[in-house]
Amino acid sequence: MASAPPPDAGPGVPAVEMHGISKRFGDVVAVDGVDLQIGDGEFFALLGPSGCGKTTTLRMIAGLDIPSEGRLAIFGEEVASWPPDRRPVNTVFQAYALFPHMTVEQNIAFGLQMRGIRGPDADRQVAEATALVQLEGMEHRRPSQLSGGQQQRVALARALVNHPKVLLLDEPLGALDLKLRQEMQVELKALQREVGITFVFVTHDQEEALAMSDRVGVMSDGRLLQIGTPAEVYEHPANRFVADFIGRTNLLEGVTESPSAVRLDAGAVVAAANELAAGAPVALSVRPEQVRLHRRGETPQGAPCLDGVITDATYLGHAFVYTVAISPTAGASGTSAGEQAATITARSETGSAALAAGEPVSVSWSPAATTVVAD
Amino acid sequence: MPSLTPAETAAQRRKRRTGTLIATPGALYLLIFFVVPLGLITVYSFATRTSTGRTSLSGWNLDSYERIADDVIGGIIARSAWLAFLTTVLCLVVAYPFAYYLATRPPRLRARLLVLVMIPFWTNGLVRVFAIRFLLGSNGPASALSEAMGFGTFRILFTPTAVVLGMVYGFLTFMVLPLYVALERMDWRLVEAARDLYASGAKAFWRVTVPLTRSGIVAGCVLVFVPSFGAYVVPEILGGAKTLLIGSYVARQFQAARNWPLGAALSVLVIVSMLVAVAINQRNSANAERTQGVTR
Fold this sequence. Notes:
The complex is a heterodimer of chains A (about 375) and B (about 300).
Chain A: E1 16-25, E2 28-38, E3 43-47, H1 54-62, E4 69-74, E5 77-78, E6 89-92, H2 104-114, H3 119-132, H4 148-160, E7 166-170, H5 178-195, E8 198-203, H6 206-212, E9 215-220, E10 223-228, H7 230-235, H8 240-245, E11 250-258, E12 261-264, E13 269-271, E14 281-286, E15 292-295, E16 305-315, E17 319-326, E18 342-349, E19 360-364, E20 370-373
Parallel strand pairs in A: 3-8, 3-9, 6-7, 7-8
Antiparallel strand pairs in A: 1-2, 1-4, 4-5, 9-10, 11-12, 11-14, 12-13, 14-20, 15-19, 16-17, 16-19, 17-18
Helix pairs in contact in A: 2-3, 2-4, 3-4
Chain B: H1 6-45, E1 48-49, E2 55-56, H2 63-68, H3 71-103, H4 107-122, H5 125-136, H6 141-148, H7 160-185, H8 188-196, H9 201-212, H10 214-229, H11 233-238, H12 246-254, H13 260-291
Antiparallel strand pairs in B: 1-2
């Protein structure tokens, strides 16, 4: 699938610009030829599984790792070889890295002090940053006396007090429990709008990335696979990895038959737009919420449709999740060798009639809701 | 508090009894060979020296302690403290970069380098001090080198300098190990955070690394200062007649001078000052545990 040109990062000089950035540690290639533009004021998420190179990418922007190759500019200035203390960026570290021997106030004031800002001016800025993250009254506590959420706020204030041009956040919510994390997602997003600083956010949590960011860059094995808005990467994943990593999906293996159809290994030929040559091995990505379940024989006209049997029904409160074992299409010619057992996960709102395991069903989906992905 | 069932009480008692049983041999050993002699020394320090040099255990007094204040002894104590201080500072300056280097190597290399640090520690201390005496002697290699380079022979042996050099060599390990432990536990991400917050490498070191390794610094200083202050072997072999230190002076009271009460009183003084140092160290490590760093 031809990759679409990366969406425009917006007008003006990009906040962060990477060209062919690579980083090797000995024989290990941590980051492999990343091209990336992050716009001024953008909330950008770098998303990928652990070890995909997203943190190394962030560390190169911060100056904590120096790229092995490539060009790196922050607001047009080439900074690839600059030490971290010269760069107009600050980082909220994973696990925060607060100075345990300093109070909250001293932690927040550290960056100002290092730049020679002292006295009433510094005090005022520290107070402002403390207020911004709602930590008034905690100034004289030590990090060890704070909860995880409070520590997170100190880390934010300690970075934001310096008014960095770019704020880098390395899994900042990873150490928080689910409820607090969801609250902080909302807060962090609001905070970013308030301060108007470019945020570059590293996470392995795709829901978090989709919920918070203006654009997402999906990384795997050191490569940047796709950049796009959350809707773009969710609805039109560039390849199999992105489709699988972002949200839940059904990947139905098959080969392209024509620009408008795919022959599934399960036997059926279904309508699916693609730009690949006929005969290319692909997978058809269908999101569980796009899958419709029907009692066998009640299938709508015109939609791709497979027959199967429900093997599992899970009640989630707001929805049912069904696992359907697809029955090979009887009479599909020349498929016996290539036929594979396929299962489809379907999701439906609880309001609809519940189906039980063992029930024969048909599944269908709208062709427009699917994406053909290659490796 | 909920009351315990008989079975629970019995189990607790058994546990306590086992603990006591295991500790008994060690406790007995310490009692006989450390506590009793220390008690004896304390008792002797209040005794009287008879005109024949014998110790009379009848007339208890503070005479020996009063003598500590006199100029000769005061001078010896001051000199001992000063040389111990110099030794401590030199050890710290030498050991910190080395421990830093050690702690930042890959783990496997670290283990090997640590063995290298320990090797001299396993050799006989007396032999090592005599080796230094040979090195620094007027016919030794150091002097020969200096002469060959045109600086003339140097006279360093039997001076306070030689004593400090010898003590630095002898006690360096005591400084390296606690510093290494502190630096090895150091969370280097904090240094990265400091660098990210506009600190230069040097500033990050002074503002983050040093405060966070303070427990190691204090422990190392106590561990070096304490034996340096009471050192006996090194000053005896490397020091001259003019470099009389408290360790040698105490020994002399028990031997040639036959003034056991004074020797005992000086010993008590050294022990008490060491206890104070150890107490400082313990409070320091308790603080370190509480805040993972320092209190202001």
